[in-house]
Design a protein that fits this description.
globular, DNA polymerase, domain 1, OB fold (Dihydrolipoamide Acetyltransferase, E2P)
């Protein structure tokens, strides 16, 4: 089991990042909440990790904060929620904001997260309401391993597509969020906030 990685951040292309630990490159998938606070490439980073083994795949997920990893693990205990939706939750809301939505029973806000329908949102509220305090409070044809787009709008669009948003929704969110000089992270952050409204 891999619980923590400390090394040099080699690349970051949402939702993927690579960390070089003594010459071994670990590829991880991470939520946008982690991407917002990552250092520049070439700098040292320490990540809490979650190692997942399925019958047909092995995956490694990275988080800057233990609270994010804890939430990622807790929400997957809810029936119908896997890693993809867990990452979308962390990309669309902070741990504190998610806790507030669950405690407040805000089904409407939860259903704005890609992959969560009304029944799943209701299950999340029922199953996590008592445990939430313990938590701490498109662009087709570009694969995660492909070339990193240099245009912030394109980068943001790719990231939103990876999070499960539909092309028409991505176009609207990015158009409304993008301002001249914005980085991809800034566009994604504003787009995800707008999607939750």
């Amino acid at each position: 089991m891999i619980g923590r990685l400390k090394g040099v951040l080699v690349s970051k292309q949402p939702p993927w990042l690579m960390v070089d630990v003594n010459g071994v490159g670990y590829e991880l998938e991470a939520p946008m909440s982690t991407f917002y606070d990552l250092p520049e490439t070439g700098r040292e980073v320490t990540l809490c990790t979650h190692y997942a083994v399925k019958e047909d795949s092995v995956a490694l997920y990275g988080f800057l904060r233990e609270a994010e990893r804890s939430l990622f693990r807790h929400v997957q205990k809810v029936s119908g929620i896997g890693a993809k939706i867990a990452l979308a939750i962390l990309s669309g809301a902070s741990v504190e904001e998610f806790a507030r939505l669950v405690q407040g029973g805000d089904v409407a806000a939860l259903t704005r997260i890609p992959g969560i329908g009304k029944k799943t949102a209701e299950r999340i509220i029922v199953e996590l309401r008592d445990r939430v305090d313990a938590l701490g409070g498109g662009v087709p044809g570009i694969s995660p391993g492909g070339a990193v787009p240099h245009d912030p709008v394109t980068e943001a669009s790719v990231a939103l597509q990876q999070l499960g948003y539909k092309p028409a929704e991505i176009s609207r969110l990015v158009k409304d969020a993008a301002a001249p000089g914005d980085s991809a992270e800034a566009i994604i952050r504003k787009a995800l906030r707008a999607a939750l409204r």
